[in-house]
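Q: Can someone sanity-check these two? First one:
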Amino acid sequence: MVKGRNVKSNKKVTTDDHERSKNFLSNTEVKDLLEASKQSRYPIRNYLLLLMMYRHGLRVSEVINLKLTDVNLKESRLWVERLKNSLSVEHPIVGDELRAIKRYLRSRKDNLPWLFINERNLPLTRQAVNYIVKAAADKTDIKNVHPHTLRHSCGFYLANKGYDLRLIQDYLGHRDPKHTVNYTRVVSSRFEKLWG
């Protein structure tokens, strides 16, 4: 018997990102999740929350820190204050999202600075966002959905549309392209014309 370290293979460490199971939602799954969010106690807020997390690739910490001043309704722009040493950037807000923001703001009866608040007029917590995402996912047949799945889904959507790596990197605020390349590596659109 050889004395020494007891070395075990750690699958998480030895497995490349592209060999892991699917960690993003298809367009249809995103639509189903958004529809399911409307079947909640706060349908207007929860729908907008999930839509913005998906459209802007927001982390939970970024979405709960959004302020009303980050939303420019006149110019249809959102200032995304990226965390985790990522690059902050301004994103456009498209029509359906702009309408959802206006609908949500009309439903508010306060002057609080945060974009997303709870029934006690406090900003949403990480736990609340986790609960909202899980509750919407539970109303669908989609498994293993968590808030970061929406960020990954944003990256995969952009990659599948054929946008270049640098654009996706800037949009998601990645400083290092190695984080972005995971999205472009497995997109199905790259393989479309192989057999036709």
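And here is the second, same format, sequence then tokens:
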Amino acid sequence: MTINADPQELAKFGELAHRWWDTESEFKPLHQINPLRLAWIDGLCPLAGLRALDVGCGGGILADSMARKGAQVLGIDLSTKPLKVAQLHAMEAGTEGVDYREVAVEALAAEQPASFDVVTCMEMLEHVPDPASVVQACATLVKPGGWVFMSTLNRNLKSFMLAIVGAEYVLKMLPAGTHEYARFIKPSELAQYCRDAGLDLHSSKGLTFNPLTQHYALGTDTDVNYLIALRKPA
């Protein structure tokens, strides 16, 4: 089976791995948006006592915070160095209830179908060759009646100007080359992947950034970053 991953993308995040938990590093935006994502997830689906999977967990920012909400969390990724950073952080911070594995989501879906109450896949779909395959695997992994949460970047002129030109080159919030415009995914395309995988759309949110206040907010503007909540029919 070919692995649904881009070696260049894995290497890119691997090289930055040691900076993952530095809140003033390239990963500052992830640290800033994580409380918003976590509150949205936990508000729709209270995490305490649930089994959760974070797909493309990187250095473990979301996985760690879900465990702190009382979930039993497995974070998976195919980039070795960020996973080691995630494991080390969990040990140093004393986070209980979180585990990490280097495994493809498709392989885990074959191994543990319908095993998780909650599956999250944040800021990852735009980095893989076949996002529909990831969506299908997430649908396989979640239990009937369970929740799937995803976030990615819309594909339009505004998202190109703000997420690439603005964030990477003008404001230098992210390293140049973090995103590839052609891989951005329109909400209609992601909705089709989800329907094909048998998931029902529950709700969506847009994530916006105000460069003057340096604050992120969740709202209705899905032009650039957007999040979707899905349910697997019971």
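A (reply): Looked at the second one. The longest strand covers residues 142-153. Residues 62 and 111 are 23 Å apart (CA to CA).
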